[in-house]
Amino acid sequence: MTNLMQHRLFLPLLALALILLANLVLSPEFFHLEVKDGRVYGSLVDVLNRSAPCALLAIGMSLVIATGGIDLSVGAIVAITGAVCANLLNSSFDTLPLVILAALAVGLAAGMVNGSLVSIFGIQPIVATLVLMVAGRGIAQLINSGQIATFQNDTFASIGIGSLLGLPAPVVIAAVVFLLVQFAMRFTALGLFIEASGCNPRASHYLGLNVRVIKFLVYCVSGLCAAIAGMVITADIQGADANNAGLWLELDAILAVVLGGAALSGGRFSLPLTMIGVLIIQAMSTTIIMSGIEPKYNLIIKSLVILVVLLLQSPSFRQQLRGLSGARNSLGGKA
Amino acid sequence: MSAQNAVLQLTGVCKRFKGVIAVNNVDLDLRAGEIHALLGENGAGKSTLIKVITGVYTPDGGRIEIDGAAICPKSTLDAQKHGISTVYQEVNLLPNLSVAHNLYLGREPRRFGCIQWKKLQRDARALLQRFSLDIDVNELLSSYSIAVQQLIAIARAVDCAAKVVILDEPTASLDSREVGLLFQILRTLRDQGTAILIVTHFLDQVYALTDRLTVMRNGEKVGTFVTAELPREALVSHMLGKELQAMEASRASQHTDSVDPAALQLRELSSSNGIRNINFSAQRGDAIGLAGLLGSGRSEVCAALFGLDSVTEGEIRLGEAPYKPRSPAQAIAQGFALCPEDRKTDGIVHPLSVRENMIIAHQAQRGWWRPLRRSEQNKLVADATQRLKIVCSDPEKPIGELSGGNQQKVILARWLMTHPQILILDEPTRGIDIGAHAEILQLIRKLCAEGMTLIVASSEIEELVAFSNKILVMRDKRLSTTIAGQDISENAVLAAIAEPD
Amino acid sequence: MNRRTLPVTVTGILFVLLLIAGAVQFTGFASPRVILNLFTDNAFLAIIALGMTFVILSGGIDLSVGSVLAFSSVLCASLIQVHGWHPLQAFPVVLLAGACFGAAMGIFIHVYKLQPFIVTLAGMFFARGLATVISEQSIPIEHSFIDAINNFGFALPGRGWIGSATLILIAVFIFGTWLAHFTRLGGYIYALGGNANSAALLGVPVGLTTISIYTLSSTLAALSGIVYSCYTASGYALTGIGLELDAIAAVVIGGTLISGGYGYVLGTLLGVLTMGLIQTWISFHGSLSSWWTKIFIGSLVLMFMIFQRWISQGLTGRRHGPDRIN
Ligand SMILES: Nc1ncnc2c1ncn2[C@@H]1O[C@H](COP(=O)(O)OP(=O)(O)OP(=O)(O)O)[C@@H](O)[C@H]1O
Ligand SMILES: [Mg+2]
Questions:
Q1: Average of pLDDT values for C242-257?
Q2: Which numbered ligand comes closest to the C-alpha of B41?
Q3: B274 plus B399 within the same structural domain
Q4: Average pLDDT of chain B?
Q5: B249 domain-assigned
Q6: Mean per-residue pLDDT for B49-61?
């Protein structure tokens, strides 16, 4: 029992369970799943489906944060890839592989820009990526000529609204990316190297690790993940809105990584925990919508839930709680 | 003497960490006007005891009294208010503040709500003068070597000193000259009635300086003794719990006059970090000692060999081939390894576990695509832990939770796993207890016998003399003298260091 | 040249160069009026950025400032307009609310060892949420005292004008410089940024310092909200979105290290002015579409940062190892 409670997955999972439970109370239908035309429907699937873009961003973000960096530009990269996809689909180059390749190339290029700013030019990550965060939306608008670009292409749209193995395509895509990256991190030494260069870049350099290259690469991965998320979002709404696509999604991604217990100063990271963080955020939004509270209270509730989840993870808070319940127990014992 | 004049009195102090009892039921009394040594092996619990006294950790049991009144310090600040000033084992100053500010942080002279910077700088200069440290007090702390930083930390503690001064291995990175100065200052302080508690692994220093000593072993107190009445052998067996085998003074195998091309050869080497015109050569199996005062360029030679500084002039040859490392990665690929001087910033990778810290250099050498299997890792780690006698309850715990000396051994283990041809050790025995010290010297000899070339920079001349077959004496970033073979003796090295050009 | 002051100096030099470049290109670019307008138009950003400087110097970050600005401006407007308070009654209450908000964040950060980024992110949502709850619509302020504040000022030769916003900014700047470089608290803040662990071992009151830092930052954000609501004569819950990022950018452009410990208050002021100058330069260009403006700002900031790194590196000589990476 205590072993279970000490497992690092325990608290995040508990928080997620509590939020899902709240959903169940608010709507008894919540856990209801239904199979129609070989596809599973239900609120839970919706939560998964809506978490997919954030999950994709959070995967890249975990790696960046593990090296002690941060990538604010992912939302803007989503917007750029969206604009590129939509415009390609409206042009004569509308074959699916080409569009996907172009989107990935855009993401990779953006990641390389961030990566070289951070590791070659030595600019601090938060500003280096802020530049692309600001300019990136401009670039997306430029590609879209200031309009919202829509398109008609069922094959591409299926990336966002199709289904695979009975699950929505975005969920499957996110799961595949997650497994790929997780495999690369834990079945090779990459994870260890990334963590080391985040914990102590100087000592890592002395160890013969190429810290610069590692930092460069994580931004590239983050850019690629953002490009995939961008495709999913664009395909989902069948259009690219340069102003609003992926807006503030980077904050959700960072939040998810931190809810998963990572330190923003770099070091240890865990992709499974990050995924739980993403689900917590999405499940919470669903709860707020389902509860029928006036939308103006949304932000306040969101911030309070975040605070509670964070507090639950804080050792000193748990000690206080234990102290409190201990005191009550001993009082009870005396009485 | 009665316990009445005890300034600091500990009774039954305990401190537990997850799975380790670091300090178990320790009593100690520290009297005004005495210098008291706290001794014990690596991981005996000395630093932990000090941190309990000074409010860094809260004790799990026991009483701490100052002048007979029980205190329970919640922070270092609290302890300072009770008159306890401390220098911790790792230099704990602020790299981003000036030297002067570091000395007076939190007690800056003020007038009209403004800090008087001019006065502060004057005071700082005067204070450092006492340690004959003539440096620019306006420079950032980080621009000075670890040894100078150590002196600055000591100066700060001594200057704050009210009733009790606690020094945790203050001499670990100091030269004999600085040590002498420090002792003089401590004696003056003692004569003024301050109580001083000092941790050290150098028995000579214990006998030269202290009045009484307390020995700890495995977190428990073995006893308190009057230094002058305790023979050295008895002290050692109290610390280790057994006798130490006499150290035979054999040298590394001496085949300096071999006909092979030298394994490593430096010709007129100058580097971007200031060393000039260094010449020497080493055969396989040689142990080369680098001696010299602080800042004489010992560490810089190591850094140049390891690709940390760029070579500006001259050349290095490995056997027949020229060698020009641009990064540690290249140096490692050529069979080099370096245990850096500053283990906190350049050595340990903190929140990572002991296991990861040990295998990571080996893993980096293999490349990311060939991970060591977990079972292999565990085996390597278990071997190294045993070979170097590392005290560590669980290899999965963060390395920062090991005692200082054990961290040093982990770093050594890390590099031994890479099977280097040329192993560079910068201050390898800093903070290592006498038992382990002897073992490391033995290990060095064994490695040499196996054909590894060793380059050891150290401020401990005795240790250099014990194993080197060639000693290079550095001065002002140049090579001043080379002493080889039968000429090596402590006096010869000392003379070479002291001799004017 | 001193290694510590170098980035600030470089920012200063680049600012002057930018000014000269603008003056060569456009007539009237370097006039006193344009320069003083830099102060007036950016006063609210500068006040926030000065607060942010202390947070970043201590190794933290405060993402809530934009929302706190919105919250204070709405609170201010609603107290004056809806509840009929005199501005002189409303201002202290708004400042106090800001201070309490910051203190609460500081307590969470220190007592529960939570990461500043996330606590202040939650604070950002919370403050914005509070502002929305007070009023979802923009509240216009009509009060003779506010008009008086807006009209107060000194004329300078060359059609320059120093208004109350500029005066407040100057006062905050002087206060900030004093705090950073002439008080113990200032030393503690730098110490925290250098190494929080060592600072605690040296006897720095870490808790008190942390709480003061976030209190200061939020109070200044509230002050900035007051300045903003006077300047625009309104309070609106959706103002200042993304302002925290501008403030962070200004601080970093001013040569402060985001990881804490190194930097100057003066640098931040120069950073804000540089960003303002880039905006002015774009507006002198006239007919730029909104997306070109964004791209331009981004690339200019980028070029500026690269230049700054480059010059600093050139002057100090590269040091081995990636000790300054990130
Ligand atoms: N923060 C910590 N968490 C867990 N265990 C710790 C922590 N600090 C110390 N220990 C453990 O407590 C024991 C005593 O450590 P301590 O640092 O006091 O040894 P020491 O006598 O100072 O040794 P050295 O001579 O090597 O400095 C060690 O086994 C160490 O692993
Ligand atoms: Mg110790």
A1: 89
A2: 1
A3: no
A4: 87
A5: no
A6: 92
Q: Which of B41, B49, B56, B402 to mutate to test the pocket of ligand 1 (most atoms within 8 A of CB)?
A: B402
Domain positions in chain A = 49-312
Fold observed for domain A49-312: ABC transporter involved in vitamin B12 uptake, BtuC (1.10.3470)
Tens-digit pLDDT profile for residues A47-84: 999 999 999 999 999 999 999 999 999 999 999 999 99
Q: Are residues B322 and B305 in the same domain?
A: yes
**More confident: B325 or A10:** B325
Residue B251 lies in a domain: no
Average pLDDT for B115-133: 90
CATH number at residue B329: 3.40.50.300
- What is the total count of domains within chain C? 1
Average pLDDT score over residue span B214-225: 92
Tell me how far the alpha carbon of residue A90 lies from the centroid of ligand 2, in angstroms.
69
Residue A334 clears pLDDT 50, i.e. is over it: no
**Which residue in chain C has the smallest CA separation from B88?**
C201
The two structure tokens encoding residue C51: 């607060």
* In a domain? residue C151: yes
* Total count of domains within chain B: 3
Residue A104 contacts residue A80 (beta carbons within 8 Å): no
Q: Could you say which of B419, B435, B458 is where a domain stops?
A: B419
Contact between chains at B108 and C184 (C-beta distance less than 8 A): yes
CATH of the domain at C109: 1.10.3470
B215 and B275 co-located in one domain: no
Residues B86 and B193 in one domain: yes
Q: How far apart are CA C76 and CA B69, in angstroms?
A: 54
Residue A187 has pLDDT above 80, yes or no: yes
Q: How far apart are CA C316 and CA C325, in angstroms?
A: 15
Residue C321: pLDDT above 60? Answer: no
Say what the pLDDT of residue B11 is: 92
CA-nearest residue of chain A to C131?
Answer: A296
The Cα of C143 is separated from the nearest Cα of chain A by a number of Å equal to: 28
Query: pLDDT confidence of C4, banded at 50, 70, 90?
Result: confident
Q: Which of ligand 1's atoms lies nearest the C-alpha of B405?
A: 26
Q: Do A127 and C291 touch (CB under 8 A)?
A: no
One-character DSSP codes across A186-231? HSSSHHHHHHHHHH-HHHHHHTT--HHHHHHHHHHHHHHHHHHHHH
pTM over 0.90: no
**B chain contacts of residue C58, beta-carbon cutoff 8 Å:** none
pLDDT above 60: residue B2: no
Residue B330, Cβ neighbours under 10 Å: how many? 15
State yes or no: pLDDT of B252 exceeds 70: no
Domain annotation covers residue B237: no
The domain of C159 spans 6-313
ipTM of this predicted structure: 0.86
Does the distance separating the beta carbons of C115 and A263 come in below 8 Å? Answer: yes
B187 shares its domain with B317: no
Residues B300 and B355 in one domain: no
Query: Rounded distance, CA C142 to CA C131, Å?
Result: 20
| pLDDT tens digit sequence for B283-314 | 888 889 999 887 788 888 999 999 988 888 88
Which chains pack against C, by 3+ Cβ pairs within 8 A?
A, B
Cα(B478)–Cα(B455) distance, integer angstroms? 17
Residue of B151, B167, B89, B168 lying closest to B343 (CA atoms)? B89
Is residue A273 within 8 Å of A9, Cβ to Cβ? yes
Determine, yes or no, domain membership for B468. Answer: yes
B218 and B152, same structural domain? Answer: yes
Name the minimum distance, in Å, from the CA of B390 to any CA of chain C. 26
Pocket of ligand 1 (CB under 6 A): B 17, 20, 22, 40, 42-48, 89, 391, 401-406, 431, 433
Nearest-by-CA chain B residue for A184: B369
- Inter-residue contact A90 to A256 (CB < 8 Å): no
Q: Are B433 and B40 a contacting pair, CB within 8 Å?
A: yes
Range of the domain at B483: 261-335+422-501
Between the CA of B22 and the centroid of ligand 1 the distance, in Å, is 6
